[in-house]
Amino acid sequence: MLHTVTSELIRFQTEAGKIEEFKKVYAYIESLLPKDFFCFEYIEHTGILSQVIFLQGQDWKKARLLLCGHIDVIPAEPSQYEPRIEDGKIFGRGSIDMKSGIAAMVLAFKSIVESGGFPSVALLITGDEEIGGENGAGYISQNFELKPEFVLVPDGPRVDRMEITNQEKGLLWLKLEANGVAAHGSRPWLGKNAVDLLIDTINHLKEHFGVDNTQGWKTTISLNKLSTDNQVTNKIPDRAEAVLDIRFTEEHGLTPHDFFANIQRQLPSEITATVISSTAPVSTSKSLTQLQQLQKIASDVAGEEIGVGYSDASHDASFFAAKGFPTALIGPVGGNWHGKNEWADLKTMEMLEQILIKYMQAFV
User: Fold this and answer.
1) Can you tell me the distance from the alpha carbon of 240 to that of 256, in angstroms, rounded to the nearest whole number?
2) 216-235 per-position pLDDT tens digit
3) 65 DSSP β-pair partners
4) Residue 171: is its pLDDT beyond 80?
5) What is the biggest distance separating any 2 CA atoms in the chain, rounded to whole angstroms?
6) For a surface tag, which of 133, 297, 301, 337 has the fewest beta carbons within 10 Å of its beta carbon?
C-alpha cells in the first residue's frame, strides 16, 4: 500500500499557492484513515493550509510525539507528476522530498491504531516548507502551545544510505539590491555597473566568511537569482537585484539575526540587504534518550547500524527546535531533489514505515 499511496500523492500538483490542490490532497489523506479513530484539524494562515491528524479523545497540542512533514513541492513539468516505478525506485516530483515520508507516517499511524495501540502522537502536514515554512510550521510553532517530547520529520537527506539527522544548518535567504550609475554600454568607465557591485560584494562575503561552497559542515553562499531593470542591451545597469541562499553553521552565528548583522557590516554603501526567510541552526544531542531509542529501532529494522549525522538543508523541524523541542529527521534513501528524475528508494521507504510504527509504540 505504501507504494500506491506515494504514487497517488505524487499526482497532486501541490505547488505553493495552489490551495485547491492542497485541499484535494488533504481530502485524499483523510480518506485513508478511519473516522472512528482519527480526527482532522485544518490551520490556514496567509493562504497556507496545514493539516493536523490526531486520535479521537486526544488534544493534539499535548501529543508527546509530533511527526511533521511537508506536502508542498517546487514547480515541475506536468510529466513529473506522473509517477513511475522501476529498478527498485519510485520516480516523480516530491517522491523523496517528501511525499514518500508523508505516506510512511500516515500509514504507520493507521497501522499502529488498527492493531490496538493508541499512542500520544500527532501528525502535522504543512504546505509551504519549500518557500520558507513561516506560515505553516513557523506559524503553528509560534502560536499554539505545543508540548512534544520529541519532533520527528520523516525526510531523507541522503542519496547513499539511511541516516538519522540531528544537525541542520541555519538558513538565510537574502535579497541584495545594488544602486549604481547608468551609462552607455560602450563607455563603462562613465558608469558604475550595479551587477558588478553585486558580484564583487558576493565574492567579498565568501572570502570574508571563508566560504568555498564545498561539501561539509560549513557555511555555503549560493547566488540563485540575478536581475536588472534593463530593457535594452547597450546600457550599464544602474540597479540590480540578487537573491542569495545561505546555509550557515554556528561558527557564523547561533541565530540568523547574528549572521545577518555580520553580513551587513561587510556591505558597501551602494548595497542594501533584506531578509526573505531565515531559520537557526539545529543541533540535538546524540545522548538524548529519544534519539538513542530512535537509532536503536532504526538499526534493528535495517539489520545494520544506522548512523547519526548532519543535513546541509534546513527543514520545518528548525521552527520547533527554536522553541526548545528536540528534533531529528529520518527518511528513505533518494536523490535528484528538485530535479527532473527525483526518486525514492522503495526498500528504505518500507523500512521507514516499520521504523515509525515501532517508534510510535514507545509513546503509547
Assistant:
1) 24
2) 999 999 999 999 999 999 99
3) 121, 150
4) yes
5) 78
6) 337
DSSP 8-state code for residue 181: B
For the chain, strand residue ranges (E) read 38-45, 48-55, 65-70, 84-86, 89-91, 121-126, 150-153, 163-168, 170-179, 183-184, 220-228, 235-236, 239-248, 271-279, 282-283, 307-311, 327-330, 334-335, 343-345
Nearest to 8 by CA among 27, 17, 69: 27
CATH of segment(s) 1-168+281-362: 3.40.630.10
Question: At which residue does the C-alpha cell 489523506 appear?
Answer: 29
Reference 164, options 291, 74, 275; nearest CA is 291
- For the record, the C-alpha cell of 49 comes out as 493550509
- Considering only CA atoms, which of 98, 138, 127, 236 is closest in space to residue 180? 236
Fold of 170-279: Alpha-Beta Plaits (3.30.70)
Query: What is the share, in percent, of the chain residues with pLDDT greater than 70?
Result: 100
Q: How far is C-alpha 86 from the chain's CA centre?
A: 26
Confidence bin at 38 (pLDDT 50/70/90): very high
The residues spanned by each domain of the chain are 1-168+281-362, 170-279
Phi first, then psi, for residue 245 (nearest 5°) are: -110, 105
Q: What is the CA radius of gyration of the chain?
A: 22
CA distance 135 to 45: 6
| Residue 194 one-letter amino acid | A
pTM value is: 0.88
User: For the chain, what's the residue count?
Assistant: 364
Please give the Cα distance from 286 to 183 (Å, whole number): 58
Backbone angles phi, psi at 194, to 5 degrees: -65, -30
DSSP-based three-state secondary structure for 43: strand
What is d(CA 364, CA 353) in angstroms, rounded to the nearest whole number? 17
DSSP-assigned beta bridge partners for residue 311: 168
